[in-house]
Amino acid sequence: MRKSLFSIIVVVAMLAVSLAPLGRSAQAQETPTLRLGLLPILDVLPFYVAEQTGYFADEGVQVELVPVSSALERDQLLIAGEIDGMVNDLISTGIFNQDEPLVQIVALARRAYPDHPQFRILAAPRSNITIANDLTNVEIGISENSVIHYITQRILEAEGLNAADLKFRAEPNIAIRFQLLMEGQLKAACLPDPLAQAAMVGGAILIADDTALIEQQFSQSVLSFRTEIIEKQPQAVEGFLRAWMRAAEDINANPDAYRDLWLEKTNVPDSVKDTYVLPPFPTYEITNEEAWNDTIAWLLEQDIVDNGAAYADSVNPTFLAAIAPAEPTGDAAQGEALFASLGCVGCHSLDGTPGAGPSLAGIAARAGDMVAGQSAADYLHQAIVEPNAYVVEGYPPIMPAYDTLSETDLASLVAYLLTLE
Questions:
Q1: Sign of the CA dihedral running 225, 231, 234, 236
Q2: Domain extent at residue 381
């Protein structure tokens, strides 16, 4: 059965650790210090913000940030016990855990948002490829058996293509994949942002991106720790998460304040250093079961793993349950961006003009009187996730239910609507 190089490395590394003399792995168990392996990518910015602001120290946890040059190096270090946690993805976690739960996801690190994709499928500059259907039987540059492979397939399936019609060309080095695309030696490729945006600045053609998968939340990176560390140092993991969430909230509130740190700690193409808009970072969110099960189904289908790891063994929500605020704090600015990107204004005007749905002008003042016993915030929340619960007289019940939005996103939408006085 075909297996990925990563699967082989996991087995070899485990054997090496089992035969090695007592070393740094054992020593790490005697200290509360957490060592985190970090790639130079956008997803790790909250780590450096938490370090810079002293949030780790505030939470009583020592954190050592260990830069790594590749996912392969990161995974080898984790298997060898040289690092305790990392930012990785669901594909990587599913491979790690195919035989036993070596790592557990404790929170989302990043995900696709409206107007803020993580991955984009691009066609080469000056190519005749302009829509997803043009990619039928065209080689698409990917990193094989990786999250990029998975996401590329799922994005194009969402665009109406069949998996049987897709052809892939393995090019694991992202910089080389970028170069081949820009030179036209690859007709299409999947690239992560901000590199994808740099390709577009250079003339690459956007075909599709993972914003099409937001509702399912298939596109995400995660914060993971070795199961052994979670069992032996739960207080340290909890303290780490508290600090990380504080840092993510700071970035979301004022992203420009951390642009220089982002440029210093991650690889950013020169062409987008001044123009790329930092995306929101998810707070107090964790992988849902639908996204996990879809990932495992794909890994099995591709013969990358023999056994599918269970959601309950691989996703650990207990830390977020312990630290999450009772009610998500809404960000009105983020809510306004969601309102625009979800197309809400297409049915609900903001100036009193009639539309397919009632105008939202002055909704903050009216919402608390719509349903007896419901606060304005509770009414708006229900109107978003259950629009047919209370249909405004004179309007048809045509609004879709936005019940797959995260609680943070819902809170932000409500916070924005409560500014419409």
A1: negative
A2: 332-417
